[in-house]
Every structure is written in C-alpha cells, then in structure tokens.
Amino acid sequence: MEQMSFKSDPFMKKARWFKALAHPERLRILDALRRDEACVCHLENLLGRPQPYISQQLRVLREAGIVGARRQGANVFYYITDDQALRVLDTVLGPAEESSMSPRTFSCRCPKCQVGDEGVVTAFHV
Questions:
Q1: Domain 10-98 architecture
Q2: pLDDT at residue 85 above 60?
Q3: pTM (2 decimals)?
Q4: What are the structural domain ranges in the chain?
Q5: Residue 6 pLDDT more than 90?
C-alpha cells in the first residue's frame, strides 16, 4: 500500500483549513475581510494588535488557501479567496453587515483611506 504524503492527503489539508478558522483573531480578520479587502494597517486598528501579529495570522490564512493578497504600489491588500470559507463564516457568524466599525483616527497612507488636512485618516472602509 502506497503511503500518502502530508501535502497530498485531503484529510490533512482540510484539517489545516479548519485549524486556520478555529482561532478567534483569525475569525475577526476574516469577519473584516468578508466585508471588503483591507491592508494590515486597517486590521491593526480594528483589532488593536501589532503589525507582526496580524501578519502572522494572515500568513496562516494564506497557507490554508483562505486568503489572498494583491499589491497596489507599496500597499498589500488582503481578501478572502475561498467561497466555502465565506459560507462557513455566514453560518457561524451570521451575515456580514454593511460595517460595524466606527470611524477612528489613525495614521495610514493607503489609497483606500481618506486623508484629512494633517495627513491623518479620519475614516476608512473595511
């Protein structure tokens, strides 16, 4: 009997997928990303976590095939690539509402932010 490698075992792949979803901060990230793509600075502000921590969680989600990234100039925007993950999020968290985030003040130079007179973002869209 031929032994299946870890990477080709469909059960191991699904277990890694479920493990990626089974973390509260990753669920919060995915909850934000199901509304719209976001850069790390947005996620930092939303979660109140440092950039390295957010990046580490995004890496896990990317490796599981749940999240993708696109570069726009110096910024990287993350988005959900897995329709099955979206269905699971809708089932577990309920439907995504327009936006449950209130405008905050923080420094971000990404093109999605609205920059005020002093270079401080007064609102953002996630």
A1: Orthogonal Bundle (1.10)
A2: yes
A3: 0.77
A4: 10-98
A5: no
